[in-house]
Amino acid sequence: MFSPQNGSWQSALAGAIRNVDELCDRLGLPDACREPARLAAESFPLVVPESYLARMQPGDVHDPLLRQVLPLGDELLPTPGFSADPVGDGDAKAAAGLLQKYDGRALLITTGACAVHCRYCFRRAYPYGEEPRRLDDWEPAFAAITADESLDEVILSGGDPLMLTDQRLTDIITRLEAIPHLRRLRIHTRLPIVLPNRVTDDLLRLLTDNRLTTVVVVHANHANELVDDCAEALRTLSRAQLTVLNQAVLLRGVNDDADTLAELSTRLIDLGVLPYYLHQLDRVSGAAHFKVSEERGRELIETLRRRLPGYALPRYVREVAGEPFKTPL
Questions:
Q1: Domain ranges of the chain
Q2: How distant, in Å, are the alpha carbons of 250, 253, 258 from that of 299?
Q3: What is the CATH topology of the domain spanning 90-328?
């Protein structure tokens, strides 16, 4: 099993870069990047773990990993059609910390914390301060799940649920495990990508030693993310007989070409991870500069369809607020 080589994941998280000038210094970025980045980081702070930083190309302001995390002045420009809640999370709240959009599934907002702040995050303006913090505060959500026997799957999301301690995760999973009609647990997380030493032996035991079938959905957008300790963490998850899926977002300047998307899919497959979704960008305020047209997205998928085996082709979708399923594009 995977054993972290560079201390605990908590120590790695504590050492993450949170200062724009430090990031620019470490990567040798032009001084022109600094002031816009400082201004944009005032409303949505910078967080970049060392492991993720190590996969970036120094001096390259167009590096596809850097582009995902570097605050830009473009984030401050108002854009028609972009809003604070583009996917209708507010209207989907069934109880404190509980969202329900689709039949058979419910989602718990377990924490507002993340190990990296992706600049296109659709929940960058989510009111996390209103959600439960202590385990007792979750009881209304657990009661709602218990009362709805149509639910057979619960999704742990956030923020990132793997930012919780193993003990807090154990408490939540134990509580869900006791609800008879639940059959599956899904965990949406970016930590195996950006903070790989979160994948510990203790976490694997936690995810596999319960009666629920556990599905782990990770989030990588570029093959350059899937190397070194990240690759080892993903192999470890897949070899633990967990179902591991990846969802990506189509991002201008990051992965909006067929070669990049094909390499992402094939590298995922080689690591035991199935490409699941390629999301059209959610229209969240501050992320308009990442937008790729749907026409371009369809062209890319058609090219990939000719190049990849069917199991390696992600589904190209958009989330539309109020719709009962992801909209195929």
A1: 9-76, 90-328
A2: 12, 16, 9
A3: TIM Barrel (3.20.20)
